[in-house]
């Protein structure tokens, strides 16, 4: 990729990020701006307001308290500041906080580890969070990155789930391995990986059932799927991606807790951020669960899924409009 193509791609990603976070920016940034009107100092009253703003923006109480403590510590050294200085300080401290995640990995776009083929991703999440849509968008992005991609329709119990995945397969122009409705999901996963190996596929994305009756049922089913895949590719799955709906706020936190307890989630995709003012949930979940937020969904288009860049995300929220 040439220099100008890279530059265009970066500008396009920032444009999508700006547009996708517009509602969150207006909510969070706007509230902070109004709370700071007429002030020149960071006092206890303002910190109380700031705490309430972050909590009501779904950053979460634990992460909010960490942010407030950091701002309070810095304000003790320099209480007098303007609005621009405050925004810069908030952006810096939140970026630092997110950078402290010991499991965080910054990807170079849609890449896979060297020497791992096929690279197998098992995608989990409750119904309605955008799981199958995310798989379709991932398939497209991986294909645009030069990878041969295959999808496995292992969500065999939900009505129309297979048809939905097939439609995304058509849009992304990648093959979908499926079986009849109510087929054992583990059998679908096994057949998908067998076909992937036979056809020299680079990336396999496995859709799974989106119900969450209880932790044991979920654990048993996902364990069975993993065991079935490992018979074909011994170390599969290489990644367990949990998809969360960012617009559900604290519900997303609860789903992250339950799935993390039930299976070995390796990373997260947070969707539907363009339609909500609750984008602060990305900051809270990234901090609280010590799992990397790998992707964020910023629109309905097939290209509106981005690798999560925490610094760009936070800076976008606190940057003044040009």
Give a verbal description of the structure.
52% of the residues lie in helices and 12% in strands. The protein has 322 residues and is of the alpha/beta class. Strands 3-2-4-1-5-6-7-8 form an eight-stranded mixed β-sheet, with helices on both faces. Strand 7 and strand 8 form a beta hairpin. Helix 3 (44-56) packs antiparallel against helix 4 and helix 4 (61-77) crosses helix 11. The longest helix is centred in the first third of the chain and has 18 residues, at 3-20. The protein is elongated, with a radius of gyration of 21 Å. The two termini are 29 Å apart.
Essential attributes:
322 residues, alpha/beta, 8-stranded mixed β-sheet, 52% helix, elongated, disordered N terminus
Write the layout of secondary structure elements.
Elements: H1 3-20, H2 22-36, H3 44-56, H4 61-77, H5 83-99, E1 119-124, H6 131-144, E2 149-153, H7 161-172, E3 176-177, H8 185-198, E4 203-207, H9 215-230, E5 239-245, H10 250-262, E6 267-271, H11 281-288, E7 293-297, E8 305-307, H12 310-318
Parallel strand pairs: 1-4, 1-5, 2-3, 2-4, 5-6, 6-7
Antiparallel strand pairs: 7-8
Helix pairs in contact: 2-3, 3-4, 4-5, 4-11, 5-12, 6-7, 8-9, 9-10
